[in-house]
Amino acid sequence: MKDPHAQAVRLATYALLQVFRPDQATVSVQCPMRLGESRPLPDLVILNGTPRQIITHPTTGLLVIEISDSTLEYDQTDNAALYAANMIPEYWIINLNAQCVDVRRSPFRAKGAAPQDEDLRVYDFQAAIAPLAASHASIKVSDLLP
């Protein structure tokens, strides 16, 4: 992991902790998920429940976030398809190369089906995003990027 990626993990963690109440949701950092036969290790996942309530690798999440530079194509294709097929309602890619956040929402489809371009909305450095699971709040893209 390069320095900008590590810094983005810290920045995103801090930003998410400002939005999601710790008595209702857990910000999981670089921990495995159990999605069928796959065991992805996303950078961040927002889980329903407190850390004490989450005792096994989660099979779903409210929001999955990958921080991407060298793995951008994989995150946009394979990971997007995996999360969509497993009914993850919202998937963000913090794109360090383009200094933006790619957001896919409710992109449910059959396993193996490719993500569609119409599922994607790109937020630039000056934008803000309201997560579906916390629509009352917004996170500035600039707060997520190093």
Secondary structure blueprint with pairings:
Layout: H1 3-19, E1 25-29, E2 44-48, E3 63-68, H2 72-85, E4 90-95, E5 100-105, E6 120-124, E7 128-129, E8 139-140, H3 141-144
Parallel strand pairs: 3-4
Antiparallel strand pairs: 1-2, 2-3, 4-5, 5-6, 7-8
Order of helices and strands: HEEEHEEEEEH
Number of strands: 8
- Output the structural class: alpha+beta
Q: Please, how many helices? A: 3
Percentage beta strand = 25-35%
The neighbouring-strand order within the major sheet is: 1-2-3-4-5-6
Average pLDDT taken over every residue: 91
Task: Name the overall outline.
Answer: globular
Report low-confidence residues grouped into runs of 5 or more: none
N-C termini distance: 14 Å
Largest pleated sheet? 6 strands, mixed
| Spatial extent as radius of gyration | 14 Å
Bin the helical content: 10-25%
How does this structure look, described?
By secondary structure, this protein is an alpha+beta fold. Helix content is 24%, strand content 25%. It has 3 helices and 8 strands. It has helices at residues 3-19, 72-85, 141-144, and strands at residues 25-29, 44-48, 63-68, 90-95, 100-105, 120-124, 128-129, 139-140. The strands form 2 sheets. It has a 6-stranded mixed beta sheet, sandwiched between helices. Strands 7-8 form a two-stranded antiparallel sheet. α2 (72-85) links the parallel β3 (63-68) and β4 (90-95).
